[in-house]
Write a structure and sequence with these properties.
By secondary structure, the protein is of the alpha/beta class. About 40% of the residues lie in helices and about 20% in strands. Bound molecules: NADP nicotinamide-adenine-dinucleotide phosphate. NADP nicotinamide-adenine-dinucleotide phosphate binds next to helix 1 and helix 12.
Length: about 325
């Protein structure tokens, strides 16, 4: 299986390292040999070798210029090359426009390539269009890493719960905000908890996307399309972040035997992201720190809750691997 990889940051590199570490296991357990044939970055150049790149060498380089496999060929021309089977997008994307991943997904699917994304933008903006394109060209579009990293939130809903009707998904889909709310329960102010989250690398220097709820909202757009076929826009969602939550709010919830959580939810009628006081008997109320969770409400199984990592380079690298194994099994 030959891969073209867009983006080689923390996730792209962790994925490459997983391929090195797991090469023998993949061969033995799945008869699967995954080769990365192309890597594209924003500032460090592009690599292409139809035979497959030497990942140990690539990981040792901070810049690709001067490497034997460095190329001036545009990535859009590489992804349609005969040798490429699967195109992976692990670069940052704009959740308003879906770019640059959206164009890459369109080109790859139009050329009949399978596509795997950990980025959210393309699917948040054009899930239905991309799924239709995949059906037309009989290619696969998989996106496990876009919601809860490698914790199999998508696979649980689409494969394991297939046959159940899912009527609602509600979850803690952003680790940064859950970490901040958990710390505020120890008496910290919002500002101090945010600063601590930034020092630990959970929050970006500009935390707006997380704390105002937009990251969780993008995941709700993906879930609304994946579960209910609803192609919503960010402006269709009711989105409130956690910036207005005070220590007094947290204390009042605690006194009532409840906990504030930033709950992202979606039904066939629409979606929202907002801080909600949950009773402690709700499984989501007991998910602390940067951990994520999702509860699917179903007709045959009642509520099914999945708890696990929602981010992390290795966890997201695993999401990519799990999608590739899925594609390999589908044949
Ligand atoms: N980190 C996580 O835990 C996590 C979890 C789930 C999903 N994701 C998603 O995975 C993606 C990658 O995250 P990351 O943490 O690996 O990001 P990152 O460390 O910032 O790396 C981004 C990579 O993408 C490249 N890039 C940036 N803009 C590009 C463009 N326009 N065209 C081609 N390449 C471009 C960068 O190039 P340079 O090397 O030249 O800078 C870099 O190699 C994001 O969409 C993120 O939302 C991340």
């Amino acid at each position: 299986m030959k891969i073209a990889l867009n983006g080689f940051g923390t996730v792209g590199k962790a994925f490459a390292q997983i391929l090195i570490d797991k090469a023998q296991t993949l061969q033995k357990e799945f008869d699967l040999d995954i080769q990365i044939a192309a890597i594209n970055t924003r500032t460090r150049g592009t690599l292409f070798n139809p035979e497959g790149l030497d990942l140990s060498k690539v990981l040792a380089q901070s810049n690709f210029t001067g490497m034997a496999d460095a190329t001036q060929t545009a990535f859009k021309d590489i992804i349609t090359h005969d040798v490429i089977d699967v195109v992976l997008d692990v670069a940052p994307t704009d959740i308003q426009t879906g770019q640059p991943g959206l164009d890459i997904c369109r080109q790859a699917l139009s050329a009949g390539k399978d596509v795997v994304v950990a980025s959210k933008g393309a699917l948040a903006v054009a899930f239905n269009e991309l799924q239709e394109k995949a059906q037309q060209t009989r290619s696969h579009l998989l996106y496990e890493g876009s919601v809860m990293a490698g914790t199999p939130a998508i696979r649980l809903a689409k494969q394991d719960l297939a046959g159940c009707t899912i009527t609602e998904a509600r979850g803690i889909l952003n680790g940064t905000t859950n970490y901040i709310l958990t710390q505020m329960e120890t008496g910290m102010t919002y500002a101090d908890a945010l600063q601590q989250a930034q020092e630990l690398g959970y929050a970006e220097p500009d935390p707006t996307g997380d704390v105002e709820g937009w990251d969780a909202a993008a995941k709700i757009l993906i879930l609304s399309a994946a579960l209910f076929g609803l192609q919503l826009k960010l402006s269709d969602l009711d989105v409130t972040g956690i910036t207005q939550i005070t220590p007094e709010d947290i204390a009042a919830a605690q006194a009532a035997g409840e906990r504030y959580k930033l709950v992202a939810s979606v039904t066939a009628q629409g979606g929202s992201v907002k801080p909600i006081r949950l009773p402690l008997i709700d499984p989501l109320a007991n998910v602390g720190g940067a951990t994520n969770a999702i509860t699917y409400r179903t007709d045959l199984m009642g509520d099914v809750t999945l708890i696990g990592a929602g981010a992390g380079p290795r966890q997201t690298g695993f999401a990519l691997l799990s999608d590739l194994i899925d594609i390999h099994r589908r044949g």
